[in-house]
Design a protein that fits this description.
Chain lengths: 472, 472
């Protein structure tokens, strides 16, 4: 089996492309680019899937720009692939049938901040760090943190979450409303700024996680949260991953409102030590962070420490100074690059699954055993408070046998999570890489997804070949 | 204008009904009923809209029963109207084109409780009180509380929320996955038990709030929460509604994780006093409740009390004993009946809107003035922590002039909320009563809703004439 076999083919429309390209050029001038370098950059992602280049790239500055580009592509039946920062992992920005990449990174205006309503309105190209820098003085912050400094539009499109999700939820919870350019070029708003509504179908949640296959998100209304009065972070080591996972399971079951709780297995700690010049004990490790008032953080810490001790947690180290916390979380955020550096010449395949919290230890332990049996190098890191973990599998591109074992391992991992009542992706999204698991996970519900896709994008031009086949 | 003008007509299919009724009778025996009394009961709701009876009622015991009934109705193009407990307010269970009511109240099995994952699986007819009684010993509870002891299926279908939503969210947040019988009788599961997933379109959230127009919810996987260690409730009076609203706005903006915060205006307090035999001060009143650890509740109470004082709050009364709290909240829950008892012979029209929290005082004050100018009797009560409030308008059915003024008032109220960036319904849903506001609130997004409706229910048999016209 080859990686390319995962990529659902999409028919090219050369005549349509030949007609639409000069029109885009006329309309957008220098903001329509077709150079090989720019096309490569827009097909390229941190994905492990082979790159498939678009035929040209529109750099949009406004919702109107996006709508104009989409209308032209719609008229000529040419695929459109939205592009944020290119940090997605499952081949989301590939162009399997060619077409036009719509780059939203220059749509980076913060339109409005409403501290009195704990919300803000941003263009889709604003990144999470940019937003948090901008609102620093308001005492508010945007908590969703997938690691990469992704664009907020891209984060909504892939239903991103990350380290803070256990307390603050995912993009599904953080988005109040979206402006979306639909496949025919019409522009809709999916909601207002009220905190809740029962007025009709939840188009906001339908668009969040639709990965650009139903429309292009151009503007977002997002919830903000007060910066907590007190923050305390800690690192703790465990005799084995089962003990670390059981600590997490118990902490969640006790209702500790932990803000972040991250697992690094022994191999991941080794990688982090080497990459980030740290000297952490090379054992299964939890990084935890608590948010709240001084007294509530103190309570959380005490309760967590007692659970942790029960499962053999040792060498507890607290970091209440911001600089110490930053160092700790920087190491966590560099886990991807650290993992890759274990075997620098190799391709890294990052995959994630998510299971009910009670099955977390079972799933991680079975996966570690599988890695060992299969003879792979594959560190594990995870947002374990949600039952979500990632495996970074290293593979030699030139070694067909190893690639085959990797593929088979990833397949077993995904089916294992689904069998346990979980999902084939907790936060990376489907893209191209996870389409093969959709039927097993969703059964007849997949046909309902395809029906929605057909109804909103009958020409199959919006990011085709991702999530669901239109004929499914 | 008459109330019936709000009810979108649906074409009857007498031939289809004549064909399907004997088949339903054969299949369900005594569990298919066509008596006038039972049909009336199933068309009847707490709604203020004229009742429109179904032609027969199927009492379903299982998902298979529902699927069989739907398949027959699908084959004969006969409308299907799902029925839970009939406590919805906007005409959701009316049968404008006749058809078959599917009563789910006997699907009242609690299928599984997973305390270790903080979730449970229930059939759609289980009510929220039944669930909470059942799980009392686990130390967990289900927090969504719309007042009525509604069925959980119905609560999901209308995206219900209620008093606890400010801390625990709405049905949108509480539902992990659904089993749904689709309009062609196929059965889907919209998700697993993982706490989060990025695997495709969010069918769970699409079905939550779809009011039976896209399918019938037959089973739900729901999140549960730990019963808080400490609970404290209080009642406080204010010189005017603006001061009460400003207290709420400030408390929310300060990030106090208040569990419930309810406003009763002076007229509503008067009604509650008389109906529930209480002697509360007849002034704008807030009922608040805090959940957490002993020390965190103490902190919340202190911070709230200081904000309240700033806005002239007086006669603070704390209720930490469960029986005192129960009395207080029982009075709140009886607000609907209490309001109605102000003028017993009249029809009561309950309507709700929701605005961004910063506009809450503006909206409530303008609405009170409007009530006064229009010369209506209409107490206000609200889940104000979400910016959501209800107006119960009393109207004499035989007084055409009063009915017209009531209609015009409700219209102004809804448009006022929409103009303020809010929504025409925070929790009651669209049903028949709010369809006329959908175009103003959603603009071109309404056509997207209609497109989804057409794609999943091309025969327009699932609860037709609700939320969105299929030809919109």
């Amino acid at each position: 089996m080859s990686l390319a076999a995962l990529q659902v083919p999409v028919q090219r429309n050369d005549a349509g492309l030949a007609a639409v390209m000069p029109k885009l050029s006329e309309l957008f001038g220098d903001r329509f680019q077709t150079s090989q370098a720019i096309r490569e950059q827009h097909g390229h992602t941190t994905s492990w899937l082979p790159n498939q280049l678009p035929d040209g790239v529109v750099f949009a500055l406004s919702t109107d720009d996006v709508a104009s580009a989409v209308r032209l592509c719609h008229e000529h039946r040419v695929p459109i692939i939205p592009f944020g920062t290119g940090s997605s992992l499952e081949g989301h920005v590939n162009a399997p049938g060619g077409g036009i990449s719509v780059d939203l990174s220059q749509m980076n205006q913060i339109v409005a901040v409403h501290p009195e309503d704990l919300d803000c309105v941003v263009q889709a190209g604003v990144t999470r760090k940019q937003l948090n820098d901008y609102i620093r003085d308001t005492g508010l912050f945007f908590p969703i943190d997938p690691g990469a400094d992704a664009s907020l539009g891209g984060m909504a499109a892939t239903r991103a979450s990350g380290t803070n999700a256990v307390r603050y939820g995912t993009m599904k919870d953080a988005v109040l409303a979206l402006t979306v350019v639909m496949p025919d070029g019409s522009v809709i708003k999916t909601g207002g700024r009220a905190k809740k509504s029962s007025a009709g179908y939840d188009l906001t949640r339908l668009m969040v996680g639709s990965e650009g296959t139903l429309g292009i998100i151009t503007e977002l209304t997002l919830k903000l949260f007060g910066v907590p009065e007190a923050v305390s972070a800690a690192i703790c080591h465990y005799p084995d991953v089962a003990s670390a996972c059981n600590t997490v399971i118990n902490a969640i079951q006790c209702g500790i409102p932990v803000a972040r709780i991250e697992l690094l297995d022994e191999l991941q700690v080794k990688a982090v030590n080497s990459y980030s010049k740290l000297s952490l004990k090379e054992a299964p490790t939890l990084l935890v962070e608590f948010h709240g008032s001084e007294s509530s953080v103190k309570e959380q810490v005490e309760l967590f420490a007692s659970i942790s001790e029960e499962f053999g947690g040792s060498d507890f180290e607290w970091a209440t100074r911001p600089e110490d916390r930053t160092r700790l979380w920087a190491a966590r955020h560099d886990a991807y690059w650290a993992g890759q550096s274990l075997q620098p010449g190799k391709r890294s395949l990052s995959t994630d699954v998510c299971v009910p919290i009670s099955r977390l230890a079972d799933c991680v332990v079975a996966t570690q055993e599988d890695i060992k049996t299969t003879g792979l190098t594959a560190p594990i890191v995870g947002h374990v408070g949600d039952g979500n973990f990632h495996v970074l599998v290293l593979a030699d591109d030139t070694d067909a046998d190893e690639l085959e074992r990797v593929e088979a391992f990833i397949e077993r991992l995904n089916y294992r999570a689904i069998e346990m009542g979980g999902t084939c992706t907790g936060e990376h999204g489907v893209g191209q890489g996870k389409m093969k698991y959709m039927a097993r996970e969703h059964g007849p519900a997949l046909a309902v997804m395809a029906s929605i896709k057909r109804s909103l994008d009958p020409l199959n031009i919006m990011n085709p070949g991702k999530i669901v086949r239109i004929d499914e």
